[in-house]
Amino acid sequence: MSVDEQDSRKEGGVPNSFGNALAWKWTRQMPRGLKGGFLTMLYALRAMAAASGELRFKDGKPIRIQDLAKAAGCREHDARRYLDAGIRAGVVLVDGERRRGKATRYAIPGDVLWPDWKSAEDYLKATARRRAQDEEPEDSSGHSGTNSEAGSSGRKGTNQFGPQRHELGAADEESVRATEARMGSGHSGPTGSGRSGPNNPGSSHGVSHDGADVATQPPVVGGSSAQNDQSPNQDQDDQPFGRCEQCGHPLVRPGVTRCSAHREKPTTRKRPNADRRGPVQAPLMAVVPTEPEPAAVAAPEPQLPKQTDPFAPLRLCGCGREFRDRDPAAPCPECRTAEREEAARLAAR
User: Fold this and answer.
1) Is residue 71 part of a domain?
2) Share in percent of the chain as helix, strand, coil (round to 5)
3) Which domain holds residue 333?
4) With contact defined as beta carbons under 8 Å apart, do 111 and 20 qualify?
5) Is residue 194 part of a domain?
6) How far apart are CA 146 and CA 163, in angstroms?
7) Model confidence over 105-137: pLDDT tens digits?
8) Do the Cβ atoms of 121 and 109 come closer than 8 Å?
9) Is residue 330 part of a domain?
10) How many CB atoms lie within 10 A of CB 164?
11) In the chain, pLDDT over 70 holds for what percent of residues?
């Protein structure tokens, strides 16, 4: 869609016209330095403006600078800078008087032909805050440590103080060399002069000691213990590698005479009481049955009472009850139930 076709969509109000000009014209004209927080602020003004272009609520109260800063995703100080830059460019208007302690009512114009982007960019550059590393406090000691932001040049380390090596004079270099020669000797650790580690800033293998002044050094306190403060495996490590006495295979560890295949392995001593087992204690309070439990007698299945035949003849039982049954010798139902219960009781004994 061309720019001319977009111009026909300006009848929707001031925010719509402002948004079309911002998206289709101004973003192509403004310099690169304005395409950041300033551009975001312009989009926030377009989204929060009323139909008349004023940045106000429905009740007429102006929108605060805090709300504009939150909508643009910046700090309140930067929001004021962006608004002032927009005023200088002609894309932000001020409705009324700006007074301290009172909310200022801003507005966006309906039609701006030629915004002055150069003035806005110059204002933002002039009011930009200086970086912390460019400013050094007046009471600073000049030390550049881990937490210091000033004096980052010169490769100042964490524990280094005073002038660096490139700042020393010729006479000082000779004294530094003499000091380096007396710092340590032999197979020293990372703080000595011979085979020094990365934490010794003044050591060098190629330093000449011809110009060093030879002087008697004071005795070191605890010198005997300092000389003996070496690894217990140092003498063993200094021994040359050899071959195995049995097979002649090259050895990979110093101080040994046999390889791992012919090395005497330590015999594991067996404890004398390893095979002895203690007496097994029987469980206490165990109930030993004297007689096997009798087999449980299956309970007799319940029998349903015999249904009375209504067409059977009426008979008289020996107990004196009348009942109907086709068998003349059959007892009454009550007598039959009593006989079954008696038989079950006798079987349970």
Assistant:
1) yes
2) 35, 5, 60
3) 314-348
4) no
5) no
6) 17
7) 999 998 877 899 999 999 999 998 865 544 444
8) no
9) yes
10) 14
11) 53
More confident residue, 215 or 278: 278
Whole-angstrom CA distances from 123 to 36, 108, 155, 163 are 15, 19, 36, 41
Q: List b or e across 62-84, with b for residues whose CB sees 16 or more CB atoms inside 10 angstroms.
A: bbebebbbebbebeeebbbbbbb
Q: How far is CA 312 from the centre of its chain?
A: 95
Kindly state the percentage of the chain with pLDDT values over 90.
Answer: 26
Domains held by the chain: number = 2
153 pLDDT more than 70: no
Q: Which long-range contacts (CB under 8 A, 24 or more apart) does 289-297 make?
A: 297/347, 297/348
76 within domain boundaries: yes
State the pLDDT confidence band at 167, using cuts at 50, 70 and 90: very low
Listed residue (88, 79, 81, 80) closest to 116, CA to CA: 88
Angle between helices 37-48 and 65-72 (to 10 degrees): 120
* Distance separating alpha carbons of residues 94 and 47, to the nearest angstrom: 17
Higher-confidence position of 11 and 107: 107
- For residue range 193-217, what is the model confidence (pLDDT) as tens digits? 445 444 555 544 444 444 444 455 5
Instruction: Taking residues 227-252, report their average pLDDT.
Output: 66
Position 85 scores a pLDDT of: 94
Question: 312 near 326, Cβ under 8 Å?
Answer: yes
Which CATH number does the domain housing residue 18 bear? Answer: 1.10.10
Which residue among 127, 155, 181 closes a domain? 127
Between CA 92 and CA 81 the distance in angstroms is 12
- As a whole number of angstroms, the distance between CA 200 and CA 202 comes to 6
Q: Which residue is listed with tokens 């449980």?
A: 296
In the structure encoding, which two tokens stand for residue 282, read together?
Answer: 């029987």
Domain final residue pick, 127, 155, 183:
127
